[in-house]
Design brief:
By secondary structure, this protein is mostly helical. The chain has one domain. It has helices spanning 2-20, 35-46, 53-74, 83-90, 95-104. The longest helix has 22 residues, at 53-74. It is elongated and about 45 Å long.
Length: 113
Amino acid sequence: MKRSLLSALSLWLAMLSPGLAAPVDPTVARPKYSKEHQTELIRRYNSAPENKKPCLSEYIRNYQESLFKYCVATDGGKNIGGGCDHVAYAYSIHEGVLELALEKCKVPTPARR
C-alpha cells in the first residue's frame, strides 16, 4: 500500500512539475553584425530556395509564438503599448533570428564570386 501511494504521488508530482517550472525566455539576443553581414543575411533569407521557405516561415512563426507565450506568462507586456502582441510580433525578428532560421532549415550559403 505504501509503495503504490508513493508511486501515485510521484506520478502526480511529475505531471504537475512542468507547470511549476519558471518560463524560459526564448529571446534571441541581437548580435552586433557589420552592415555587410546584416545585408547578406537578409538577402539569403529573402532569396532562399522555394523548398526552404516553408521551414523558414515555420521557424519564424514558432519563434514569435514562443515570445508571445513567454510574454503572457511573465506579464511582460503590461507597460508596453500593444502589450505582448507588440513584444512578439512588432520588432522581434532581426538578423540573429534570421541566421538561426537559415541554419535550422539548412539553407546553403551561396558561393562567393
